[in-house]
């Protein structure tokens, strides 16, 4: 089980994931931060990015904050690093 620490930025033009050179993960979301829409959008987008079912993603903390922890069931820390590599800013 891997845990992804990230910063969510709602109300973006489109969904996008970016990993800074220091390893900070930022996810821009099209959905507004209202009534859990951004959190639902976040989990759906992560499922799309990692090509896993939405049921494997659980929001552990940050339900009402920009900094979030998301659990990826059945994914190792190494698999998480490999999956995030294409999103690293050069």
Describe this structure in words.
The chain contains two helices and five strands; from the N terminus they run E-E-E-H-E-E-H. It is α+β, with helices and mostly antiparallel strands and 90 residues long. Strand 4 and strand 5 form a beta hairpin. The chain starts with a strand and ends in a 6-residue tail after the last helix. The relative contact order is 0.26.
How is the topology of this model organized?
Elements: E1 2-9, E2 16-19, E3 25-28, H1 37-50, E4 57-61, E5 67-72, H2 77-84
Parallel strand pairs: 1-3
Antiparallel strand pairs: 1-5, 2-3, 4-5
Family: Belongs to the UPF0235 family.
InterPro entries: DUF167 (IPR003746), YggU-like_sf (IPR036591)
Protein name: UPF0235 protein IC231_12315
* Content of β-strand: 25-35%
Radius of gyration over alpha carbons? 12 Å
Quaternary state of the chains: single chain
- Series of secondary-structure elements, N-terminal to C-terminal: EEEHEEH
State the helix count.
2
Most strands sheet: 5 strands, mixed
- Helix coverage percent: 10-25%
Strand order of the biggest β-sheet:
2-3-1-5-4
- Give start-end ranges of low-pLDDT stretches: none
Distance between the termini: 28 Å
| Coarse structural class | alpha+beta
Pfam families: DUF167 (PF02594)
Family: Belongs to the UPF0235 family.
Protein name: UPF0235 protein IC231_12315
InterPro entries: DUF167, YggU-like_sf
């Amino acid at each position: 089980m891997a845990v992804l620490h990230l910063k969510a930025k709602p109300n973006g033009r489109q969904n996008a994931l970016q990993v800074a050179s220091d390893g900070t993960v930022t996810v821009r979301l099209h959905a507004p931060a209202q009534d859990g829409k951004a959190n639902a959008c976040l989990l759906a987008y992560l499922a799309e990015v990692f090509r896993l079912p939405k049921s494997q993603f659980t929001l552990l903390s940050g339900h009402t904050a920009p900094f979030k922890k998301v659990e990826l069931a059945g994914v190792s820390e190494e698999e998480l690093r490999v999956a995030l590599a294409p999103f690293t800013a050069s």
